[in-house]
Amino acid sequence: MSRKWTFHPHDASAIRRLCGQLKVSPLLAQVLIARGKADADVARRFLDAKLGDLNDPALLPGIDQAADQIVKAVSDKRRITIYGDYDVDGVTGTSILWHCLQLSGANVDYYIPCRMEEGYGLNKAALQQLHEEDPKRLVVSVDCGIASVEEAALARSIGLDLIVTDHHHIGAKLPDAQVLVHPRLPGSEYPFGELCGAGVAFKLAWAICQRLGDGKKASPRMREFLKQAVGLASVGTVADVVPLEEENRVIVRYGLLTLKEQSSIGMKALMKVAGLMDKEELRADDIGFSLAPRINAAGRLGQARLAVELLTTDNPERALKLAEYLNQLNDNRKTVERRIQRQAKEMVAEHPEWETHKTLVLAHHDWHPGVIGIVASRVAEEFGKPTILIALREDGTGTGSGRSWAGFDLYTGLASCRDHLLTFGGHKAAAGVKLKATELAAFRDAFAGWAAANFHPTADDTQLRIDAEVLLSEVNYRAVQELERLGPFGQANPQPRFVTSQVELAEPPRTMGEGDRHLSIRVRQNGTVMRAIAFGRGEWAEELQAHHGTFAISFAPVISTFNGYNKVELQLIDWKPAAASQQAAG
């Protein structure tokens, strides 16, 4: 399905008014208006967001009780175990709480489940083992537990104190833990419900620091810790793809400023192997494409504990070894992903009968359960269908990961097929499943059947929202630098997207990267020539080469740095022949 381009109406008088009120360029003013910030006060608050804009931790449901119990446990010398999830959000959230409690003099350790053996969330066997090792132990979950009803009941029955901190989907029944900390608990009036797990952990650490200070303010030492913790929280926030609005945007904005200067030894080692220490300033993309994948690789390949160790160690030599090992795991992960993606495409080609299905369910015995989610996202985008990839196991079961497309409600679709599944969970855009291999075909048909009856995507569901139509000559270094004030960019706050028409190729297109996956072109318009790159769109090279005449491109401008020299490049999002783009704009 060709993507529909939707333009925000150009209002010259509103642009002039906002330019005068804010003293900004017309380009920035137009993007602000396109994103619902035509009012000068609203726009100013957005552009000048401050740390002081963060909500008081006391507003977060359950946080006062949780902080009080944790501080008392520290005072009573009880062992406190942080039970974190194995993804970046869980790893960074666990590290935040560990640093906080370590500085408080607590007897603290952490437990990270193995993705392949224990799966997501609290684990009964692990809770039982933790209790047997120390019956007086307090367990605090991070980024998991709100759906662990049976596990919380077990903890209650054996006398294990459990505090749950989470941000995930709340089911019909809440777990019976000592305390629940969650921004969207029933009856909650917390002003912002989209914190990630690390964001919730940061708020809990803040509340603990207040209690260890004078009750309202943390001590100078703990205030310094909280600045470092904002950096960790920013990594979790970007990696978990929560909306970069309101509190999340503030956390990432200030976290990016503190990451290089006030990070732990381990985070600095990770930034070094990722090649980020020489950058003048960090962007959300540096987290999303450099730091997060390296942390995530550990969890995806069953070694998330090493990622937490990296972020908590005070040994520089150990930190560097761990960072280099995570870097190697990440390289391994990329190799595995490419193989799975190739096999998935071959599988679709071998089954033409699936062409009529509005969904894809693919399974293979050689697939690694830790990386299929990433590949599912790429397959969904390539084939334009919600996709579930399943890693079949020797015990006759399969573990799957799914990604949505065009607004499909993945969770509801899976719920309709629950008779064919052992377990499932997640939300509208991403979900996980477990099933018996013998149910695979029946599940595939049932899932496709539900989609046939309930999923009718239109061009509006995949539309590309454009902030403004511009000339290439307007996208200069100074203008793009000013647009950075809108950042950090990510979910719900994407980089400014523009369209320019009547461009032509300045030279033949070429592919680059392993397997010729990416596209590089140079485009010309009225004497202005710029480079544009489309990641994962190597197939466009042949299409563009075959196209005769001018065309239109939609893109996000970025500042690229090479050998100390900065220049503007375009991240190509889509392209259309000139006639098609005029029709879409009209």
- For the largest sheet, list the strands in their spatial order: 3-2-4-5-6
**What is CATH's topology name of the largest domain?**
inorganic pyrophosphatase (n-terminal core)
Which range best describes the helical content: under 10%, 10-25%, 25-40%, 40-55%, 55-70% or over 70%? 40-55%
Distance between the termini: 19 Å
Number of helical stretches of at least 4 residues? 21
Count of all domains: 3
Structural class computed from helices and strand pairing: alpha/beta
Cα shape: globular
Q: What is the number of E strands?
A: 19
Radius of gyration using CA atoms only: 25 Å
Given this structure, which CATH class of the largest domain is correct? Alpha Beta
List the main descriptive attributes of the protein structure presented here.
5-stranded parallel beta sheet, Diaminopimelate Epimerase, Chain A, domain 1, 586 residues, globular, 5-stranded mixed beta sheet, 44% helix, inorganic pyrophosphatase (n-terminal core), 19 strands, 3 domains, 21 helices
SSE map:
Elements: E1 5-7, H1 12-22, H2 26-34, H3 40-47, H4 63-75, E2 79-84, H5 88-103, E3 107-111, H6 115-118, H7 124-133, E4 138-142, H8 149-158, E5 161-165, E6 179-181, H9 197-212, H10 220-239, H11 246-262, H12 265-273, H13 284-300, H14 304-312, H15 316-350, E7 360-364, H16 372-383, E8 387-392, E9 397-403, H17 410-415, E10 423-426, E11 430-436, H18 440-454, E12 464-466, E13 468-469, H19 477-483, E14 498-505, E15 510-512, E16 518-525, E17 528-534, H20 540-546, E18 551-562, E19 565-577, H21 578-585
Parallel strand pairs: 1-12, 2-3, 2-4, 4-5, 5-6, 7-8, 13-14, 17-19
Antiparallel strand pairs: 8-9, 9-11, 10-11, 14-16, 14-18, 15-16, 16-17, 18-19
